[in-house]
Amino acid sequence: MEHFAGLDVAMEETAVCVVDLAGTIVHESTVATDPEAIATALAPWGQSLGRVGHEAGSLSPWLQPALDGLGVPAVCLETRNVRAAMAAQRNKTDQTDAQALAQIVPTGWYREVHIKSETSYRLRLLLTLRRNLKRKFLDIENAIRHSLKSFGIRLAGTTRGHFADVIRGLIAGDPLLQAMIEPMLEVRAAMWLQYTRLHRLVVKVVRADEVCRRFMAIPGVGPVTALQVKTALDDPGRFSRSKTVGAYFGLTSRRWQTGTSVDIQGRISKMGDDDVRRALVEAANSLLLRYQGWSALKVWGLKLSRTRGRKRALVAVARKLAIIMFAMWRDGTEYRFGTKKSAPDEVKLSGEVALVVA
Fold this sequence. Notes:
By secondary structure, the protein is α/β, with parallel strands linked by helices. It folds into 3 domains: 3-107, Nucleotidyltransferase, domain 5; 119-208; 223-357, no CATH class. Helices cover 56% and strands 13% of the residues. The protein is built from 15 helices and 7 strands. It has helices spanning 35-42, 60-69, 79-86, 94-107, 118-149, 163-170, 175-208, 210-215, 223-233, 243-248, 274-289, 296-308, 310-331, 343-348, 352-357, and strands at 3-9, 13-20, 25-32, 49-55, 74-77, 253-258, 262-268. Helix 5 packs antiparallel against helix 7 (175-208). The N and C termini lie far apart (68 Å).
């Protein structure tokens, strides 16, 4: 008889539940969160074990490859599907969660999560640390700006490089303010120094990566966007259609349809990685507003901005960028700017940039 197992993984311990094809529980235990300990607990059902399900989490990138290496038929389950299935539980414990996972696996009513390569996870960690450090730096800078408003000190038009010197000059006659603000300025300087170190490391990695260099040939796409998209896709072979990439990054609209009277198509789903989606929208904005050259994608985005509005145009161009970058990686091609239109068409679009800015 075939058996299935569920693993409720925690930091220290993992709850294990094994069921048969009829859903009857045949084994329950708690073991250390260690691949070898889990494999040992499942060893008595090694020949009949069909699938072992565990919910996607922070330990999944380490646990899934380790279980695969030990011959355990593990699958990483998508979190939203698991939570929806567990919503009917009266009590939530590690034991009942493991039971629910074991019951879900035989049905096939789940989505398997793709575990990225270790290299992708390392590079994504670099991007995450860079983002966090930048946010903390901006928090410190904004706190300094806001705290000085109470004393009539308003900063406007101050460049980042001269920020500290301007602040010190404005509070030079107030010893108490100097004593309070100086530590903040020193922390700000230290955080900016470390942020620039991480940013240079990102640029160095992108320069050494052939795929990222091709991505950066697209107008508006910089090193951060290129690396975000590459590490998020990880393997272009896992997508059967290029249009799926837009939905994967949450750039396609939601839909709620029931019967013949209700069919609502709303805003984008915003599923997937927030950082990738944000980077793609920033790249789209740069393409439409800052890029001075000609590109068929830019012309298409400007036309869409005129007919559908600026925000929808940004999202549409961001989705196109994701699809184009995926296709470039999959096919090993370069970015094509397209063929220019005739002169009358270009005259017709001459005022589009001003329209988008407005």
